Amino acid sequence: MSPIEAAADDLQDLAVLWSIGEVRAHDVVEGACAALVAGLDSPTLCILAGCTRVEAEYDVPDLLPVALDELGLVFYPRESETGQEAAVRALAHRLLAGKLTPRELALRIHQRFGHQLPLAERLAELDDEYDIVEYGDRTLAQLDAEVTAEARHLASGQPDCNRIL
Length: 165
What we know:
This protein has helices spanning about 5-20, 25-40, 45-50, 55-70, 80-95, 100-115, 120-130, 140-155. It is mainly alpha-helical and about 160 residues long. The two termini are about 30 Å apart.
């Protein structure tokens, strides 16, 4: 993957995480700066990257959808199922990048989506298992490995024909 493609993926992930409240507006501004440095460019991305922390809170809601559109990326509306699924994948990317632990990923998914989002159901179940690990026959390392494997699967974007939804 080229640096420009990686920057586009990172900006897409930041946008969806912002839309569910997982990251703050100034994180999006920092992501826009990183995208510019990596070689992405659009008029609105430049304006977004120039926002101060205070301006970010007011300007990101208007600028981000336009910047993403100019770059051929997707802005997911809040509460849309496709947006929630994109957020699950973005959080999985964060685990794989070392920004979250397996336990943190499972907990955040469970807190944000409960058992209501089929794509994230396994992670919500694993969060439940973390809560009772001391009473079961599995270890924390086994749960961590299973969460990591699930994150890899989710990040790949591949459907799993063996799963029952």
